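In this supplementary section we document a worked example of the pipeline. Step one takes a protein sequence of length 261 as its only input; no multiple sequence alignment statistics are reported here. Step two produces a three-dimensional model, which step three serialises into structure tokens for compact storage. The input and output of this example are shown verbatim.
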Amino acid sequence: MRIDSLVWDTSINLRRDVSGCAEMSGPKIGEMSLATLSAVGALLADQTRCRLLQALMDSRAWTAGELARFAGVTPSTVSEHLSRLLDADFIAMEAQGRHRYFRLAGPPIAQVIESLGALELPAADRGSHVVSAPAELRYARSCYDHLAGRLGVDIYDRLLTNGHLRRSDSGVAIQPSGEDLFAGLGVDIDAVRRANRPSARSCLDWTERRHHLAGAAATALLQVMLERRWLTRGSRPRSILVTEAGRRGLEAFMMECPAPA
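The serialised model returned by step three reads:
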């Protein structure tokens, strides 16, 4: 099941249809939904597999033993779940010496997981929504290879407000001032343009229920901030911490860094 291909192919076909084509090329939406949604639903119906995917959302490679300890299951159990995720092309495996390392198969898979996590299903208590996530993850975390949480959403909003990004029906585009802003921080804009993926796109945030920035530029931006030690990875999977240097740097870069709740 190549869900990453289906995600992108479907979005392309939809844009072509809106622009005036009489028919969509490739698989019809109904045909894709029946096969893909049922397969994804079966794959994510198990909480242990969801825990494994949650850990792998930090973009780093994990061994089976590390994943077993994180999920609180036996090595044989985690091996079974990893096999199913591998068969579904949700994860990839890389062997180095005697060790095997597992990571998400790519950004489209991370997009699916983050977007599904942002869904708010009907519950018995229909009061105000409360996100069941630790405060440090709500504030800042990695969404596979880019920044998410309140900090990621605030940065995305400020980029839009200041005109560095432009949002339209066709997606998100980096403006010349945005390229200058990123380049001034150390992002290789030429590499961003050459990447075999969108330079910028919006990604629905799991905890904020608003969008943060994703795409090649967002990946490069997070990497630069980590290299500058503005941000560091926390002890909890996916957690991102802002250093004092990062608070000063972010303020000089574009915004006042919000304090954690």
